[in-house]
Amino acid sequence: MRIEKDTLGKVRLPDDVYYGAQTGRAIDNFPISGLRLPGRFIKAQGIVKLAAARANASLGLLSKKMLKAVEKSAAEVINGMHDQHFVVDVYQAGAGTSQNMNANEVIANRAIEILGGEKGDYTLINPNDHINMAQSTNDTIPASMYISSFKAVRDDLIPALGGLKDALLSKSGEFDKIVKAGRTHMQDAVPIRLGQEFSGYAEAVKKDIYRIKNAMESLLYLPLGGNAIGTGINAMPKYRSRVIREIGKITGIKFRSCENLFEGIQNVNPALELSAALRGVSITLTKIANDIRLLSSGPRTGLAEIRLPVVQPGSSIMPGKVNPVMPEMLNMVCFQVMGNDT
Fold it and tell me: Is residue 138 domain-resident?
């Protein structure tokens, strides 16, 4: 065990962990859910800390030796090498001070090791004075949230939805000559081609992709440089532009500074906009899933207008029974996303 000190006194920590006293207190204070923030968010924290270090070094506030150590340490965080040391529960106090300090302490202690020191020797590199220089929880946590969300949607969600849209369009062509009953109020109405139904599904997903991309635009505006309440206190005047520039270099994404840092610190409306767009696509997808599940019902006593691929047995007591497990799984995911937005 090692002993570290903070403003409240001494904290005992395991020798092998990179987090420090404040994270140790957070572990004791918030044993709530066992859930941790995802690796994407931790990676974004590493990006913010790396960009901040480079910006501060360019202003003469960090030595080249310190910068080199912090760059290596932050890069390791970005690459997921220290995820196991980010241990604060998702249910924590306020704006995420414990999570911010978790990042500061991990990056500081690893950088100290790189310089040849021992964990906790903050005379070499200090979590607050050096890693958190010109920053606050109130600007770094929203920035990390926006960066991680933008990259997740761009790299994973948009391609997946695009693939779904293309698959639905392909089925629309394949089913174009199949005529079936159209229904309103769950009652037979007028004829429709199955391909036409699938073309409607494809168009709905296409429009949801458009809405999500629109919501992503607001994530590009980061409140970095605003510090605690938007005044930029404790940050050099040129820090704001330089840290945004460095984040752009690291991510290859054209992030910008908030037009008004007071508003940017106070509100996380960009996250709300994205959440609403995700709820919208979830509603679309659950409609599609419910249609497909209903149309495949039976096969002897239901509609049985379409037949789903068999992917697994559907019963522990009824041999041969097959369930629409993929539409049902999609519904569960969609309900979770809708719940997240409530």
Answer: no
Q: What is the pTM of this model?
A: 0.95
| Dihedral sign (CA 32, 38, 42, 45) | negative
Q: Do 104 and 235 fall into the same domain?
A: no
Given 170, 199, 315, 316, which residue is catalytic?
Answer: 315
Contact 306, 181 (CB under 8 A): no
Asked if residue 186 and residue 123 are part of one domain, the reply reads no
Q: pLDDT truncated to tens, each residue of the chain (342 aa)?
A: 999 999 999 999 999 999 999 999 999 999 999 999 999 999 999 999 999 999 999 999 999 999 999 999 999 999 999 999 999 999 998 899 999 999 999 999 999 999 999 999 999 999 999 999 999 999 999 999 999 999 999 999 999 999 999 999 999 999 999 999 999 999 999 999 999 999 999 999 999 999 999 999 999 999 999 999 999 999 999 999 999 999 999 999 999 999 999 999 999 999 999 999 999 999 999 999 999 999 999 999 999 999 999 999 999 999 989 999 999 999 999 999 999 998
User: In Å, how far are 32, 108, 176 from 101, measured between CA atoms?
Assistant: 19, 10, 58
Give dist(CA 10, CA 22) in Å, integer: 10
Tokens representing 171 are: 């089925």
Domain that holds residue 114: 2-133
| Sequence-separated (6 or more) residues with CB below 8 Å from residue 5 | 11, 21
Asked if residue 170 and residue 58 are part of one domain, the reply reads no
Residue 136: active-site member? no
Q: How many domains does the chain have?
A: 2
